[in-house]
Amino acid sequence: MERQTRVPGVVLAASLLLAVAGCAGGGGAGDDGRPTARASIPASPSAPQSASPSASAPGDDGKPAAGDVLPGMVSAAVARTQLAALKVAEPGTMAGYSRAKFTHWAEQGDKCDTREVVLKRDGTDVTRDSECRAVSGKWTSLYDGVAVGEASKMDIDHMVPLAEGWRSGAAGWDAAKRKAFANDLTNPQLLAVTASSNRSKGDQSPDLWQPPAKSSWCQYGRAWTTVKSTYGLTVTEPEKKMLGTMLDTCTP
């Protein structure tokens, strides 16, 4: 999702709907996609863990705790503490960026890759074929509240897009840490959303794009902040301000 200029978060309908499901290529493309070959993910991702305690954790079935659709969520109070501690910096250059530098979707066992694991986790009544591909199920997209009954209409979004991660610190990571970031099933980094909302978001930060369903802002702000805190990524001043606005929508 290479971005040449940071533009307001509006739906670039004609060009974005023609983009392939993936971050590679031009600015604003969606954040979903499948690799031509699956790769195994390290047993212990080399990602720094936030010192802040989580308010909830995924259940044994991989589902998020009650009240949230994302795993590894923290309370609004913890998220505000994380946000205050984030380093503020101007976005880095996109020089050298390639989606291929963030290996995805990694093999997760039983012929399933990260994408299929998230589709199963975020849906209900999901059935799979012999290759672990979701063939039926029901999903409700956090970003726009749309209910979907076809897996092909869902994308797996990186909460903090790969290109945004690159601009805010991932350019200096090694391959193992980028792979962990792109396949993180523990922190609130991956979720199934409608393809249209994912491609509307592209690689934009919260100051430039917000989920159209304002009811999702509390979760979105907590998730984005937690991911940036966990991986030691930077934020811009406008991004930090908008994240604060999103956290202010959380009920006490």
Kindly state the percentage of residues in helix. 25-40%
**Biggest sheet architecture:** 3 strands, mixed
- What's the Cα radius of gyration? 17 Å
Assembly annotation: single chain
Would you tell me the overall average pLDDT? 81
| Number of helices, counting only DSSP H or I runs of 4 residues or more | 8
The global form is globular
Q: Which band does the percent of strand residues land in?
A: 5-15%
Low-confidence stretches: 1-28, 33-63
The end-to-end distance, rounded to whole angstroms, is 35 Å
Task: Describe the overall structure.
This protein has 252 residues and is α+β, with helices and mostly antiparallel strands. It has a domain at 69-90 and 97-247. It contains eight helices and eight strands, in the order αβαββαββββααβααα. The chain has helices spanning 13-17, 76-85, 114-122, 162-167, 175-182, 195-201, 217-230, 237-247, and strands at 39-40, 106-109, 112-113, 124-128, 134-140, 147-148, 154-158, 190-194. The chain has a three-stranded mixed beta sheet with strand order 1-2-3. It has a three-stranded antiparallel beta sheet with strand order 4-5-6, covered by helices on one side. Strands 7-8 form a two-stranded antiparallel sheet. Helix 7 (217-230) crosses helix 8. The longest helix is centred in the C-terminal third of the chain and has 14 residues, at 217-230. It is globular and about 45 Å long. The N and C termini lie far apart (35 Å).
Key terms for this structure?
252 residues; alpha+beta; single chain; three-stranded mixed beta sheet
